[in-house]
Amino acid sequence: MKRSLSFITFLILTAVVAAFAATPFCHIRHYDEYDGLSQRQVKQIAKDSDGVLWFATWNGLNRFDGYKFEHIRPQIDDEARSYSERFRDIKPASTGGLWCRIDDKILYFNLSTHRFTDIHSQLEKKLATAFDVSQIQTATDGRTVLKCADGRYILLSDSNPVESAAFTDERPKLKYHSPGTRKLGNVGGYRNEDLLYSRADSTGTAWLITRDGTVLSAPSAAGPYSTIARIDAPDGSLTCCTIDSRGNIWLRSNDGAFCLTLGQLPYTYLAHPEPSIVRGCVRDPKGRIWISYSDSKAVAVYSDLSAAPRYLGSDGHLHDSFVSFGSPIYSMSADPQGNMWFGSKPDGLFRLTPQSADAYSVTNFRHDLAKPGLTPAANDIYDIIFDRQGRMWLATMRKGIDCVLNPTSVVPEFIHLGQFADYPQNAVRVRRLAIIGDSLITAATTGGFLTVGLPAEKRFDRTSFRLHVSRPGDDSSLGNIAVMNILPDAKGRLFIATESDGVNMLPPEISADSDSARFVHFDTRTGMPVDVALSLAPTGSADDILVVSNKMIYTLDPLSGRTVTYPASFWHRHMHFSEAAPLRLGDNRWLLGLEDGAISVNLDRADTALRPVPPVIFTSVALQNRPDSLISARTDSIILSPDERNITINFAALDYGSTEDLQYQFSMDDSDWNNLGTNRSVTFLDMDPGEYRLHVRSSDSSGNWLDNTRTLTLIVTPTFWETPAAYVLYILAILLIIVSVTWTIVYIRRMKRKQKELLAAYLRLVDSHTESAEFSTPPDSAPQQQQQPSTATLSPADEAFMGRVMDFINQNLGNPDAGIDDMAAATATSRSSLNRKMKSLLGVTPADFFKESRISRAATLLSETDRPIKEIALDCGFSDLNYFGKCFKAARKTSPTAYRREHRTE
Questions:
Q1: Rounded to an integer, what distance in angstroms lies between the CA atom of residue 243 and that of residue 262?
Q2: What's 609-722's CATH class?
Q3: Where is the composition biased (Low complexity) (predicted)?
């Protein structure tokens, strides 16, 4: 957004800030051409009955859904095509459309069709006179009033504008179109006419916006008023136009549009002279709250957050004005005896022993190689905790973990666990510690999650160490080795905050020091808002924990995985939280550390349930990868033509306050919800014909799913070939194919059977032929007792042809030189015709028939005579006895000799 005045202004008292006093703020967003507006000369902003915002500019009409401006241009055949696109005014009509004034003409815009109607020309024809419109107004009876340039008025009803139109010279009683914008009258030293906006909210806080763009606030209408923001707009061009469903105020100007969000901050910033990162917050036994600012090396002490803090000096005294403690404090803790303990970087450990209500004696323990066992192992101490035996445990950033056996002693004894051989060297950089029972210390390290098992006899040399790390391919291992914080809860669960894998949990039935520890992950893959977890705290409820991330906080219910987030829209600024553990102040009030100070916040101020539920609308569609086409907010169905099977549907929840935090889900028909994140579109490819129902819903800014489901019916029109009539044709075609194939198979089988029968018959004729017989026709001259081919199976021409073939066969059966060419000549056909004819009649080629005839004659002679095999071979046209034997065996599957032996007749 160009020149986005993400201008959050709030009053910070330099000395005292009430802990939970209301702090007014004004968030201003500016929109012009760089944000998608077609022109920065905004002449009017209107909200239609669906909650959509419309902008009239000197370059047409714009629709805004909170995300994107859409420029509405008259279509080529639109009646508005004959006019310019200088929109000077728009007003919602009672019929749901918009009255538009283009220059001095009046048109009607249909929100369902996005078409313009030239009402002006129709009115001039009906009233039989020309006129120019200077204003669009609304009468008290609901009729639309057109003020003409000549001073006359035209009254018309929205439902039947042309027929109801009538001139009047008297000014109708007009309805003030925005009665909620100026309610306080003359207030705060301003006259009502000098104000664009005035009201008192539910808390009694008064708000004013002047015509010169000054935004003021006061605890009540009586004042005193303070300037909290200024709108940077050309003088005299600001006009208050409308208020959206979230209560945002929209103003127009010659330099774009402005959206103002007014309200009370849910938090109070704790004033500090030098903005600094907060490293620790702790409550001492007296109920005072201590806050450490590491950059300014200061420690602030609050007896009451509604009072000014006192500052701890290096002399151990509490001072009413700011002083530096002299060392950057990274951790703080109080022991049961009332001593305060500070962990510093790089100045070691401090013990503050109370001397009076306002003074402590300060003892500094720094690492000293000359004093082993009497000083800490390192001087950068990030955490301090106490166990039930009164021992103190220190987390150091370079040397691992120290145990202080007698911390209140004049000379405490330090046990450095890093000196033991089994201590993992990858875990020497320790951020936080937590104690489970009496014998297990857990540590958040930069190298993983470390557990320290203490022996029952308190022999530290028998301490066991186990470092849990991330194992590639094992989803049950630790998600990330950069562990930031550890939180055991009352149910025996252990929560581990990681730097880039969200929160990991060990269920109560799994021991933290077990090699088989299986972690449950809560990260963005499982629906968490972010993957960074800096610190954790119990919320006081049965299950929820508070998770502090770098840019937001959220509560997590580990049983359901449900989260409640507190994003930037809750704070009305970009927060940068520090690693300091949250300090619960009571109920749902917390003290949180930032990178630039500390805040106290009441999380119950997240009153999203009281806000209007933003409706979801479908904004545009793209068919078959064509550009987006706008659709009306009232569209409830889309019909796709037979050649349109791919569609992308865009949608938006009309929440003009925190759109960047909204999440979306969709389902098709009655399927489960699918998460889209912040994506506002869904695409379907290769859709089958039919009717589908697309359901879309959104969350609020805290991640809670709303009851704002919107349904769009998609009707995919089938092609003719996908209709029932086509399927009937398919069935008939399949049946026809089946019948045809079956008939063909049967026919072929019948033909082959006839060919085989005819072939066998002619071979029998060859076998029964004697040298003295004369064959002029095939079967007729054969003896009566022999089987002959049926003349009914052959035509007279085919019978004559086969007679010539048989004459040739019988005459040349013993001639080894006779060939197919001779047969063709004898039958008066070509070689190819002979081949084709023989194949069609007998199913074999002439050569095969000739050879089979010789083999058949030979077989007959072998079985019925005693003639030598060589003589039979010669008589049957085989000049080579070996070749005869080979051919015979191939045809009869046995040798001539064996065949004679098996078939010899007596």
A1: 12
A2: mainly beta
A3: 776-792
